[in-house]
Each structure stands twice: as structure tokens, then as C-alpha cells.
Specification:
- There is one protein chain.
- With about 270 residues, the chain is mainly beta.
- It has a single domain (about 1-269), classed as OPCA outer membrane adhesin/invasin (Lipocalin, Beta Barrel), CATH 2.40.128.
- It has 3 helices and 16 strands.
- A 10-stranded antiparallel barrel has the order 1-6-7-10-11-12-13-14-15-16. A two-stranded antiparallel sheet has the order 3-4. The chain has a two-stranded antiparallel ribbon with strand order 8-9.
- The longest helix has 21 residues, at about 1-20.
Length: about 270
């Protein structure tokens, strides 16, 4: 009788564990998930472009100099594919292109020219990011997913300033593109089948090809499952780049921050 009772208890525990594994948010349990929405960051851009005039190298704050608004609205897409019990692939994409007429609020050193404060200019920036990340999970709990991995960010950055009057010197657009690898980690937690909490961090500080500096990509947020395959969520997103660039089309530096909320609809299957 005691032996039968112990067997029943063991089966009951195993059954409870199986149910617990099923009753978690689909971001943890499903094979595919995708997030599509609007990223609304505040932007801060400081750069120098071959900024040597009379032996002086000087960068400038883009928003402060041009008077551009530092807020933006960007379409952003993220996705995850679990292709094994412990392995996953994650991807992220967004881009923004912005141009406008402005009156410079401070002197701008651009290549071998100085564009004086008060000059009327047409100016613009462009930025795109593609993130690819392979990771391995290490937590065996049904409602927790935590792990580490390696990733790659492909960046394209560009900027131009064209004064209304002729200026002596080189005012050609500055642009650069290329990969930056990184290491990363994440922690996801599902308190119930409807709710998901989690965050991740990508980071690297090194000299790689044309870049010498650091990259940080952070997000943290919450998702609520509305229906079987559809949810809604919000997360805080920060992308930070601080590098010196050694490239024919851009020999200088860039400090770039995109920081703000990402509001999205999610799908899973």
C-alpha cells in the first residue's frame, strides 16, 4: 500500500510539472515569436567629420547645432526562433532618415571647412541597424529563460550639411557602414500564461576594423497575451554607440544615443 501511495505521489508531481511547463507565456514556450511596432526614442548625436581646421579637431552636438528636434518615431521589428531545446536566434531591425532646413546655432567644423553660426543649411542624418544574435539557454525552469550568446550589429550611419551659400572646402556627405560583433545575455520570466517580463543586454568595447570604441544595446519590458497567437507589449530600448571611425568617407568620431519606449503587437506560433 505504501509503495502504491508513493508511486501515485510521484505521478502526481510529474503531472504537475508537465502542466506548469505548459502554463507559461508563449514567448518562452513557442518556437517563433515576432514583435512589430513603433520605437519613439529621444536622439542625441555628437560627431566630428575630418574635423581639422588650422590644426584644430572639433566635434559638435548635432541637435544643438542644427536646432533639429531630438525626438523621432521609428518602425522597429524584432523576432526570435527557437531551433533547439536550448538554442535560439534573435533578430532586430530599424532605420531612420531625417532631413530638414535649419539655421545653425553654433559653428560647425566639417572636414576642412567651418560653417558659421547663423548660416542657413539643409542637413540630415540616416541610421539603420540590423542585429543578429545566437544564444544558448541555461535555466531548466519551465517559466524562466536565461542565457548568453554572441551577436553582430550591422550599422549604416550617414550625415550631411549643405549651406545655402557657397563655402570653401569639402562639404561632401559622411557615411560609413560595417559590422560590430558583441557578447550578450538575457533573462525572461513568465509569472503566468498571460504575462511576460524580461530584459537583455548586448555589449562590446574594442577596436574592430574601422571602428574603435563601444556599443551597448539594452531592452527591458513586459508583454500581455491577448489571444492565443497575439499579444501587446511595451519595453524600454537603449542603443548607444561611441566610436572613432577610420574610413575614407568618414574619418572622425560619432556618439549616438537612441533611448525611449517601444510599443508593439506580438505574434507567436
Amino acid at each position: 500500500m505504501v509503495k502504491k501511495f508513493n508511486t501515485l505521489c510521484l505521478l502526481s508531481l510529474l503531472g504537475g510539472t508537465a502542466v506548469a511547463q505548459d502554463e507559461v507565456h508563449p514567448f518562452i514556450s513557442d518556437k517563433f515569436s515576432v514583435q512589430m511596432g513603433v520605437f519613439m526614442p529621444s536622439k542625441n548625436l555628437e560627431l566630428s567629420v575630418d574635423g581639422t581646421v588650422a590644426g584644430i579637431s572639433q566635434g559638435f552636438d548635432w541637435e544643438a547645432a542644427t536646432g533639429f528636434e531630438d525626438d523621432d518615431e521609428v518602425f522597429m521589428l524584432e523576432g526570435k526562433w527557437r531551433f533547439g531545446e536550448k538554442w535560439s536566434f534573435r533578430a532586430q531591425y530599424y532605420e531612420t532618415n531625417k532631413s530638414s532646413r535649419a539655421v545653425l546655432e553654433e559653428d560647425v567644423y566639417w572636414r576642412n571647412s567651418i560653417i558659421l553660426a547663423g548660416s542657413s543649411v539643409t542637413a540630415g542624418t540616416e541610421f539603420s541597424l540590423v542585429r543578429a544574435f545566437f544564444g544558448r539557454s541555461f535555466d531548466n525552469r519551465a517559466n524562466v529563460d536565461t542565457g548568453i550568446g554572441l551577436g553582430l550589429h550591422w550599422l549604416e550611419i550617414g550625415a550631411f550639411i549643405n549651406p545655402d551659400v557657397n563655402t570653401i572646402g569639402d562639404l561632401s556627405a559622411a557615411n560609413v557602414s560595417g559590422p560590430l560583433p558583441n557578447i550578450g545575455a538575457w533573462y525572461y520570466y513568465s509569472p503566468s500564461p498571460k504575462w511576460f517580463l524580461g530584459g537583455r543586454l548586448d555589449w562590446l568595447d574594442a577596436k574592430i576594423d574601422k571602428y574603435d570604441g563601444g556599443i551597448t544595446n539594452v531592452s527591458a519590458g513586459v508583454n500581455y497575451q491577448l489571444f492565443k497567437n497575439v499579444g501587446i507589449g511595451v519595453k524600454y530600448q537603449l542603443f548607444r554607440l561611441n566610436v572613432n571611425i577610420d574610413e575614407d568617407k568618414w574619418n572622425g568620431s560619432v556618439k549616438l544615443d537612441y533611448e525611449g519606449p517601444f510599443i508593439y503587437l506580438s505574434g507567436n506560433w
